[in-house]
Design a protein that fits this description.
heterodimer, A: alpha+beta, 2 domains, 6-stranded mixed β-barrel, two-stranded antiparallel ribbon, B: alpha/beta, 3-stranded antiparallel beta sheet, 7 helices, 27% strand, globular
Chain lengths: 399, 222
């Protein structure tokens, strides 16, 4: 067969497929509707799941405790923290490093105290493990300022510019009541959920606190930002090799909540995809099968006039392809509209954790491909049955 | 097989379940010949026709179509033989109902030639010859039975087959429609094709060059 003939034959098979589909308008509408509904559901679903994962990584890693966290392996605190921090920052692929000292503390306002985690932070690269939502960051070496989690500030009834009392437990071994008492001004409010929690955390300057401790380099952990969450494991391994006194933990090892939440989200995505495949595939398979049964006489006639079994298979398979492509073409704009709606009206919002659906090519490509695959797979059996029809038997029986 | 023969069957037998539908039938058909096959219902006429048309595999016996044994070839080769050398006309519901008369006629030619335009032109020519030009764009589902049979005859002829096999083409028709279908069948032999018609219609059999009578799966005389 010449290429021209092959093209013409393809045109003939496509013609037969399309005319066969068009001859049952109601069936065609139901078939396309099932596929379009699947796509229209799966596009915003995928966008929301991608948005949820992206926001979790943003909160827990990029605006949280970073891709890799470095802890002292044997000592209580990181030794020669300043020099170590400088060396870590020089490692290729690392964009920022924060030094953190964590102490138990209590914050009070007008006589009411609340126990908190005091995060003494030194962020020379300007990267903080939280989102500032009001006021300003602490200037380096600030001895009089404090940042308060927004939810905590709300409970205490304080705002930017208010005075609070802070009691920090230093816990040095040789002192029974080793507590620092400070009157500080609230410089800003921050939001955070996964690592620095806005409900029970305050932020103060590390150099100030370390000075109070009598150990200017006092650092409990280093936060390493590479902005490559997927490469965090490899980076942690490199850092562990380069710094024998430090334990390097990627965010997946260090944050069980975040890791579980992302795994859970992936499991939800997989099961919803499976449900959509079944919800689209079953009705499409059933309708195409009924079509192939109802068309047995026509199939037998096609065979009698010299259209081969493989070509009959292609005719019915093309019907599944037409249904799939048309359904995707109709369902995608509906899905796009729903994504736009959910971007304007997020389905989840808390402490700056906003589930904003991701509007990207993969938001559409993946659902379209999965639904198309479901439609095509659903078309295989009806097409196979049609191709295997015994024309002699059908023509002998008359139906 | 001499040159004039287009189809030769020797000892064709077909067993369906426990019933021997066709029992050792031998026959030859020559180019341009009109052969009528008559016999009571259930005597095996349709089964024989289907074996001759390569739709049904004989249980025993030999068939030669244009000098070759089609059952020694592949499925594709038999499909090609049907497409190139055989035309079919069945008793009723002959057409693909969601296509127009013109598209039904053009279909085998489109598949054979790989050229839609040429196929439609050939279909137009045949529909014109059979007086169906005005109904060319009518969906097959709304054609009358007589028109449908004439369109089926046009479709059977479109690839200039060596043999046309017709299974009771006038079986469900009134007298006027039957006449028009018989006139259309006459066109088959004009084109040089052989025609084998299974029929109960005495008028059809009377127009044949030869009549074969079948009973209990056997041909009684010739």
């Amino acid at each position: 067969m010449t290429p021209t003939n092959r093209r013409a034959t393809s045109g003939l098979l496509a013609f037969l497929a399309w005319r066969g589909l068009r001859s049952s308008p109601l069936t065609l509408v139901v078939l396309v509707g099932a596929v379009a509904a699947g796509v229209a559901f799966q596009v915003p679903n995928t966008a929301n799941i991608l948005g949820y994962e992206a926001e979790m990584l943003e909160q827990g890693v990029k605006c949280g405790f970073g891709d890799v966290r470095l802890y002292p392996r044997r000592s209580r605190r990181i030794e020669a923290a300043k020099a170590t921090m400088t060396r870590v920052r020089a490692t290729p692929g690392i964009h920022a490093v924060d030094a953190i000292l964590i102490l138990p503390a209590a914050i009070g306002h007008e006589g009411h105290f609340q126990s908190v985690a005091a995060l003494a932070l030194d962020s020379p690269d300007g990267r903080q493990p939280f989102r500032l939502v009001e006021g300003q960051l602490l200037p380096p070496g600030d001895r009089e300022g404090i940042l308060v989690g927004r939810a905590l500030a709300c409970r205490l009834g304080v705002g930017v510019g208010d005075k609070v009392e802070l009691r920090v437990v230093f816990g040095r071994n040789d002192l029974d009541e080793d507590v620092g008492r400070y009157h500080l001004t609230v410089r800003g409010l921050f939001a955070g959920t996964f690592t620095v929690c806005a409900t029970d955390t305050i932020v103060i300057d590390r150099r100030f606190v370390a000075g109070e401790l009598g150990d200017p380099e006092a650092t409990d952990m280093l936060l390493v930002y590479s902005d490559d969450p997927e490469g965090a494991g490899a980076l942690a391994a490199r850092l562990a090799g380069a710094f024998s006194s430090l334990e390097a933990r990627s965010w997946t090892e260090d944050s069980a909540l975040l890791r579980s939440a992302i795994h859970g989200s992936a499991a939800v995505a997989a099961s919803s995809t499976a449900m959509v495949l079944v919800a689209v595939g079953l009705p499409v398979a059933a309708l195409l099968y009924i079509q192939s049964i109802n068309r047995r006489r026509q199939v037998a006639l096609m065979a009698a006039i010299g259209i081969g079994g493989a070509e009959i298979f292609i005719v019915f398979f093309l019907q599944a392809l037409f249904v799939g492509l048309t359904g995707i073409a109709l369902g995608s704009p509906i899905g796009y509209g729903l994504v736009r709606y959910f971007r304007a009206h997020p389905i989840f919002e808390m402490e700056q954790f906003v589930l904003r659906p991701v509007l990207a090519a993969r938001t559409f490509v993946w659902p379209a491909l999965t639904v198309l695959a479901a439609t095509l797979i659903s078309g295989v059996y009806p097409a196979w049955r049609a191709a295997r029809i015994d024309p002699a038997e059908i023509l002998r029986r008359g139906t | 097989m001499n040159e004039a023969e287009v189809l030769r069957a020797e000892g064709l037998t077909r067993v369906l379940g426990e019933v021997t539908a066709v029992a050792g039938v031998s026959l030859t058909i020559a180019a341009g010949e009109w052969v009528a096959l008559v016999g009571p219902s259930g005597c095996g006429k349709t089964t024989l026709l289907q074996m001759l048309g390569l739709l049904d595999r004989p249980t025993a016996g030999q068939l030669r179509l244009a000098g070759v044994d089609p059952w020694k070839g592949t499925v594709s080769a038999r499909t090609l033989l049907r497409r190139e050398r055989i035309g079919f006309v069945f008793q009723g519901n002959n057409l693909i109902e969601y296509l127009t008369a013109r598209e039904n006629v053009a279909l085998p030619a489109w598949r054979l030639l790989g050229n839609r335009g040429a196929a439609l032109a050939a279909a137009d020519g045949l529909l014109d010859r059979l007086g169906l030009s005005a109904r060319a764009d009518t969906p097959a589902a709304v054609l009358s039975m007589g028109e449908g049979q004439r369109v089926a005859i046009a479709r059977a002829l479109v690839n200039r087959p060596q043999v046309v096999l017709a299974d009771e083409p006038t079986g469900n028709l009134d007298k006027a429609s039957g006449e028009s279908v018989m006139a259309a069948l006459g066109e088959v032999c004009v084109t040089g094709s052989a025609l084998l018609v299974v029929t109960h219609d005495v008028g059809v059999a009377a127009r044949a060059n030869r009549t074969l009578t079948m009973s209990d799966g056997r041909i009684l005389d010739r």
